[in-house]
Amino acid sequence: MTIKNASPQADDEWALETRAVRSGIHRSAFNEHSEALYLTSSYVFDDAQQAADRFTNREPGMIYSRFTNPTVTAFQERLAALEGAEACLATSSGMSAILTVFMGLLKAGDHVVAARSLFGSTVQMLTGILARFGVTSTFVPLSDLHAWDRAVRPETRLFFVETPANPTMELVDLAGLATVAHDHGIHLVVDNCFCTPILQRPLELGADLVVHSATKYLDGQGRVLGGAILGSQALVMDSPIYQFVRTAGPSLSPFNAWVCLKGMETLALRMEAQCARAQVLAEWLETLPAVTRVLYPGLPSHPQHDLALRQQGGKGGAVVTFEVAGGQGAAWHIIDALRLISVTGNLGDTKSTLTHPSTTTHGRLSEEVRQAAGITPGMLRLSVGLEAVTDLQRDLARGLIQA
């Protein structure tokens, strides 16, 4: 395939909004305007020699959609342009992206240092799956750079973080953490799901790899699952990471790639609008007697507010976590009183969602682990969508006033 009406030189000069719409466009012989969806499992070769050359990487081109597909390639190129990455590898979900990184870069006897504030499934993967294969993990306070430094062992291979953390909204100084990691010869892997490259680009701050759940903001409408790994060509494509996807097959489907590709066209607009609504709602929640604490980086009350302004493009993001008096009973009462906001574990949707982390997304963790991560029974995670703020306030107030 050839790229028409675009060039690498122009792509480097484009603003993020333009890249989200124009990067990764590959037009076929029909010269279609919208990106094509290639629903095929395999590709036809001109002759036996070409087939052999493709399979042994002597000739570039499509081979099999488990690891080469034009629609998936377009998604990868567009997201790489947004993150400022040399390479992007798409996967079937955010968790499969994380698994692929671990399986590609770790072996029995290796050690991972991770933030204790992580998505519950990531913690389960480290402690319940990788541990069975001889990989050990140490969990440290996310923002404490000295704790990361002290946790390093001779066998430590990776630092893994989310920033902001799910659901506590704690941040880490990525540039500082990258320095700690690289002083020890360790790779820093950052889950950038909450911010997206519109707000935060970890590679520019020193991270070695970025992972995404494309299921969230990249799609933006809660339609499909997807994931991605981004970084240098050497670390992503010329490494065991790519070989794991090619062999094991945790691949992004062409249809899901196409949906996320179209979703990214409005990513900058959605993030701007959803962050603005989240800021208003966070400020409003702080005024309510039933709310004991609001955790939102855009608020001056957030302990890392200044870091958020520097690291996240001056925005707090589109997720607001808050705690209510009365613990789980009060939190569930607020959820059950909702009439507009969706009760679901997903986030990053144009529809606002409310989640009780301690009994859902982090429910498989022990009480001790949840407490160490700062996840309390009265905590609620609000992913702010595109509804009118007044309607969202009215829906939340129904339960909050009664609480």
Task: Please give a structural write-up.
By secondary structure, the protein is an alpha/beta fold. The protein is built from 17 helices and 12 strands. Mean pLDDT is 94; it is low at 1-9. Pathway: Amino-acid biosynthesis; L-methionine biosynthesis via de novo pathway; L-homocysteine from O-succinyl-L-homoserine: step 1/1. One of its GO terms (cellular component) is cytoplasm. This is O-succinylhomoserine sulfhydrylase. Homotetramer.
Architecture blueprint of SSEs:
Blueprint: H1 8-13, H2 16-22, H3 48-55, H4 70-83, E1 87-91, H5 94-105, E2 111-115, H6 120-129, E3 136-140, H7 145-151, E4 156-162, H8 174-183, E5 187-191, H9 196-199, E6 209-213, E7 227-231, H10 233-236, H11 240-248, H12 254-263, H13 267-285, E8 291-295, H14 305-311, E9 319-324, H15 327-336, E10 342-343, E11 353-355, H16 367-373, E12 379-383, H17 389-402
